[in-house]
Amino acid sequence: MKRLAFLCLGTMGYPMAGHLRRAGNPVTVYNRTRSRAQRWVAEFGGDLAESPAEAARDAEVVLICAGNDDDLRSVVEGAAGALAGMASGAVLVDHTSVSAQVTRELAAKAERRAVGYLDAPVSGGQAGAENGALTIMVGGDPATYAAVEPVLSVYARQIVRIGAVGCGQLAKSVNQICIAGLLQGLAEGLAFAQRAGLDGGRVIEAISQGAAQSWQMDNRAQTMLEGRFDFGFAVDWMRKDLAIALAEGGRVDAPLPVTELVDAFYAEVQAAGGGRLDTSSLITRLSPRDDASPER
């Protein structure tokens, strides 16, 4: 067991921190909305801190799952930020999906304080966090990773160290690029089946064990056919991640034509009021069903 701090108890962070506490670790939490941290403590035990620095003060490992670059900076930097409270030799683990540039900047600041830093974005969505079955892509020093890996394994099904600091975030961009293309293909296929008068469920049954099979098909095809999108990974967050991937693609001269197109399609879903819908809502642009719409 290690003394842990978990900062930001959002859709992902709340259950992730809960797994750590259930595993017997002493956990101190911080969340910008205090009532949510109070609810977490009432459910899991542990301690509540009034600032990131206070939460991090006695922690051997500080874990963060914020929303974006600015959110991450707000809990890491400054007099009340996590780094201000962390002792030499402690490790900061960032599960937020952010740019590799911000990751490297914060890692450099951590190094100046003799604090270890791992960028460790996750994949698996809300269900993966709740079930302790996330995939984690890690960037950072091998020894630092080895010391923290048992902590991460509490809520992960697979953990892979990709390379140096920043490599975890780059791998997450690869993940999101692949998902975007898969979801658009699935949306087009299902919409085609609907317009052709096919029974979508039977089509999925027929093709889901062959070469077309994917996690998205297994977990989203039926809800896409039913026009249900009030769950899962939101379009707003996917667009944030795709913006990071597209910017990095421009920096390294990597063409991403399909990603650019799907990002534009997600912008249409947002404009129709679907920013908080699951990413599988891409089908709302194509489906003839009246109930498969962002307004549902």
Radius of gyration: 20 Å
Described by strand count, sense and barrel closure, the largest sheet is: 6 strands, parallel
The fourth-level CATH homologous superfamily of the largest domain is: NAD(P)-binding Rossmann-like Domain
Integer count of domains? 2
The topology string of helices and strands comes to: EHEHEHEHHEHEEHEHEHHHHH
**Could you tell me the number of beta strands?**
9
- Alpha plus pi helix count: 13
Shape: globular
- The amount of beta strand, in percent, is 5-15%
Report the CATH C-level class of the largest domain.
Answer: Alpha Beta
Proper CATH architecture of the largest domain: 3-Layer(aba) Sandwich
Write down the CATH topology of the largest domain. Rossmann fold
Structural class: alpha/beta
Outline the low-pLDDT stretches.
291-296
SSE blueprint and pairings:
Layout: E1 4-7, H1 13-22, E2 27-30, H2 34-44, E3 47-48, H3 52-56, E4 61-64, H4 69-76, H5 82-85, E5 91-94, H6 100-112, E6 116-119, E7 122-123, H7 125-131, E8 134-139, H8 142-152, E9 156-163, H9 167-195, H10 200-207, H11 215-226, H12 235-252, H13 257-271
Parallel strand pairs: 1-2, 1-4, 2-3, 4-5, 5-6, 8-9
Antiparallel strand pairs: 7-8
Helix pairs in contact: 9-11, 9-12, 9-13, 12-13
